[in-house]
Fold this protein.
Amino acid sequence: MKPKIYITRKLPDAIIAQLSEVCEVSMWENEEEPVPREVLEKEMQQVNGLFCLLTDNIDKSLISQSSQLKIISNMAVGYNNIDIEAATEKGIMVTNTPGVLTETTADLTFALLMATARRLIEASDYLHEGKWETWSPMQLTGQDIYGATLGIIGLGRIGEALAKRAKGFDMNVLYYNRSRKFVAEEQLGIHYVDKETLLKESDFVCVLVPFTPETKNTIDQNELALMKPSSVLINTARGGVVNEDALYKALINNEIWAAGLDVFEVEPVPSDHPLLKLPNVVALPHIGSAGINTRIKMASLAASNLIEGILGRIPKHLVNS
Ligand code: NAP
Ligand code: GLV
């Protein structure tokens, strides 16, 4: 008898086929809506493997209901949606999908930086709304990117890939990270500074740390107060890494110039959220890794992780070894 697995969202046929070779697969067939909690609770009681997304809150209470679960495979590099301690206590493996999304997420981060700095959404709306009557010297002017200083908080895989893009724009790149990255400093010509110096000196600040108890509110009132009034904050990490109330206040008080956000404390962000009302906020619906090929690679990697775990082997991308 094949081991049973549950997939929390409709996946491409090729991925189902990959999983079906080894497992008996059942799946939440809806592409657009997350699996209801009660369905997930029932499935957790009977499956050996769970394939889940970052939208699924795999908390302690859910994990405690599982009796034969061996592995939780998350189709994301971030895994703050899973209670790792609870899973580890029950001997359940947890895996993620690092690497395959690095370049695509760095692309989106740089695209968001450019869109925010050069007011692309505002300018496009201006044109579409019939407001463009003439060219004028200071019309829709934004912040220059070429040659500016970029500060990266969290120089991991995506942070390094972002630094490479920034060097192509002749940017001066500063970074702050839990550990120093001497090789990256040497290879990319980037500079390690403390967080305070980074915030004071950067024209653009990008946060790329995982969401953990230590990184919650990495950017809060005090950090925003250190930033230049002309600076731009970009968050493509997780919502909780930036305190949204503090960010709103900093934006309306002109403490910083603009923000580009791909992630929010609550997702989907409510459409009446105050930050969405500000013209100097560019907001995206968590599309950092949303390249077609990248998403297929992420799904396939999550499937491989799950198969490894189900077969009793140690998956390559185990996060709770
Ligand atoms: P990664 O390679 O693990 O990089 C994370 C970096 O953050 C590491 O260099 C780590 O330092 C550093 N870090 C961790 N805790 C820290 C702390 N308390 N203070 C300072 N630095 C700290 O991860 P990645 O693949 O680059 O991904 C980073 C995050 O991006 C993910 O966790 C996810 O939340 C987010 N993400 C978002 C999207 C999107 O769609 N918007 C897509 C992909 C990823 P060490 O080197 O010392 O460990
Ligand atoms: C996306 O946000 C991821 O963590 O992969």
